[in-house]
Specification:
Layout lengths: L11 H4 L1 H13 L2 H9 L14 H8 L2 H9 L14 H8 L2 H9 L14 H7 L3 H7 L2 H8 L8 H17 L4 E2 H11 L7 H14 L3 E5 L3 E4 L9 H14 L6 E2 L1 H6 L1 H6 L5 H11 L5 E2 L4 E3 L7 H14 L3 E2 H9 L8 H5 L5 E5 L2 E4 L7 H20 L5 E2 H8 L14 H8 L5 E4 L5 E4 L8 H13 L2 E3 H10 L10 H5 L4 E3 L3 E4 L8
Antiparallel strand pairs: 1-3, 2-3, 4-6, 5-6, 7-9, 8-9, 10-12, 11-12, 13-15, 14-15
């Protein structure tokens, strides 16, 4: 249920599926009027549907060049990627929409961007015989000059000019301004230096992050200068006390200001504060020592800015799953709390009780009823098998072979989950006494044993015994991948650093001197 402050419920304006689907339908139909109406209600132009497509993706795929221009003018990311890694330029090129392709490239779309199949837009145009697009994508620089003769990459002086112009424009305005109005005003002011939406939006975001005078005022890319904010309204002092009390009763978690804003809606409206985002900015200017600020419109207690509260919430969510879950499901949960895709891996790495079950699937240790005794039993079985492998001359043991030969000795698991090689490796990696080789989640060794070889020693021994101390790098990597199943694709930089006695060149690999003995 929703509490007094609305902290147990995701804000409907942020996650309203009906509005988001309507926005994407407008993009599909090329309906600019509907799109403009939804943007005025605060819908983010870069919002994604369940397939990972932004409105710009959908409009580009349909060839609706006018609505694509509208999206870009209000800050659409022309290099955003969908679930397959495709940018709007990929989709427009694959369908042969020349005008859309031409416009996107002129606005800075990356013609060399690769999707998850490692294909650039030119590859897709070639594949589907869109020869007009192929011809143009082969010479993209010429259209940039035709479309924007004076546009070039901003140098330091231009960046400084743009920064001062944005600051001055917002300061002189009578209130808040959206991005499209800012861009239009700047381009009217500097006719010899036309700025793109991406350049202006990047600069504004930089000012919001680094300066103390430009603030986000509402969804839909609306910004304001602090001189135009009524942050000294008397009721805000009482509101701050309510926020502090809510944070103290919230067990250290962050708090969304939507519920607080609804409680003081009339007072906020009278003071010219139109949204919870604007309220967040006003409180940020006031800088109360007992309130810290995270992603708008969330606040937290001092000390929780770096996500400690998110870790607690995420651990609790994972514990309550009582089953296997995907990484995407976990990200969808934390995204509601304002965690970005860029920050999510750092947060995910702090979860010590969540382990990998299979490719992109995870499970919490509590769901496995995993105890220290079971961990000890697993390590005993793994150690016995590893010693047998070393006796037979193998350099390491593999978890898939361990399951085949020792399945009856494995600790018992709940009925909803079965043993697999990835799960075994994930559990073994929790021990400081065990080293996991490579990145395939298959191979392991015991550090405390006299015959243990570290990663560098394993690679040296393979190079010495199989190739006489030197080999072609690609051939050697193929052997490690296909025969030994130590690596997924190739030797990464991290793997190479752990091999001090091996010399790497662009195409070859060879022993320097010394090395480990396999005996």
């Amino acid at each position: 249920m929703k509490n007094e402050y609305g902290n147990d419920k995701v804000d409907e304006n942020m996650e309203n599926e009906d509005i988001r689907s309507s926005f994407h339908e407008a993009a599909y139909d090329g309906d600019i009027d509907t799109a403009q109406s939804l943007v005025s209600k605060g819908v983010d132009v870069n919002t994604k549907d369940k397939g990972g497509d932004t409105p710009c993706h959908i409009a580009a795929f349909g060839g609706h060049v006018e609505i694509v221009k509208f999206f870009v003018s209000i800050g659409a990311d022309v290099n955003a990627k969908d679930k397959n890694g495709n940018t709007p330029l990929h989709l427009a090129a694959s369908e042969g929409h020349f005008e859309v392709v031409k416009f996107l490239v002129s606005e800075g779309a990356n013609v060399k961007a690769k999707n998850f199949d490692r294909k650039i837009p030119l590859d897709l145009a070639n594949k589907w015989w869109k020869m007009t697009v192929v011809k143009c994508l082969s010479q993209p620089s010429s259209w940039k000059e035709q479309q924007h003769p004076t546009r070039k990459r901003l140098g330091r002086s231009d960046q400084k000019m743009l920064r001062n112009a944005v600051r001055s424009l917002l300061s002189d305005a009578s209130g808040a301004m959206d991005v499209s109005s800012i861009i239009q005003s700047l381009n009217d002011l500097y006719q010899n230096q036309q700025f793109s939406a991406q350049q202006v939006l990047t600069m504004i975001r930089s000012l919001v992050k680094q300066s103390d005078d430009i603030f986000l005022w509402d969804r839909g890319k609306v910004y304001i200068h602090r001189t135009n904010m009524n942050y000294q309204a008397p009721f805000l002092e009482i509101l701050e006390d309510n926020v502090i009390q809510a944070l103290q009763s919230n067990a250290g978690n962050s708090l969304a200001l939507y519920g607080i804003y609804e409680k003081y809606h009339d007072a906020c409206s009278s003071a010219g504060i139109p949204s919870a985002v604007a309220l967040h900015s006003c409180l940020k200017v006031r800088s109360h020592p007992s309130i810290s600020f995270v992603n708008s419109p969330r606040v937290c207690q001092p000390g929780n800015e770096r996500g400690r509260d998110y870790i607690v919430v995420l651990e609790k969510w994972a514990t309550n799953q009582q089953k296997i879950f995907s990484k995407e499901a976990m990200f969808h949960f934390v995204h509601r709390m304002g965690i970005t895709k860029k920050r999510f891996p750092l947060l995910f790495g702090c979860l010590k009780s969540v382990i990998r079950y299979d490719n992109k699937l995870f499970v919490h240790l509590d769901s496995l009823n995993w105890t220290s005794n079971r961990q000890s039993d697993l390590e005993t079985v793994a150690l016995t098998y590893w010693k047998e492998c070393r006796t037979r001359g193998a350099l390491f043991a593999r978890t898939d072979q361990l399951l085949e030969e020792r399945a009856s000795n494995m600790p018992e698991l709940p009925s909803f989950v079965e043993w697999n090689s990835t799960l075994v490796c994930s559990l073994l990696s929790r021990s400081e006494n065990i080293e996991i080789y490579g990145n395939t989640h298959l191979c392991y060794g015991f550090k405390s044993e006299p015959s243990f070889l570290p990663w560098g020693g394993v690679v040296e021994q393979v190079l010495r015994t199989q190739y006489g101390g030197g080999a072609r790098l690609r051939e050697f990597s193929d052997y490690l991948r296909d025969e030994l199943r130590l690596i997924r694709k190739c030797l990464t930089l991290t793997m190479r650093v752990q091999c001090p006695n091996i010399h790497f060149t662009k195409y070859e690999i060879s022993l320097i001197a010394g090395g480990h003995d396999a005996s």
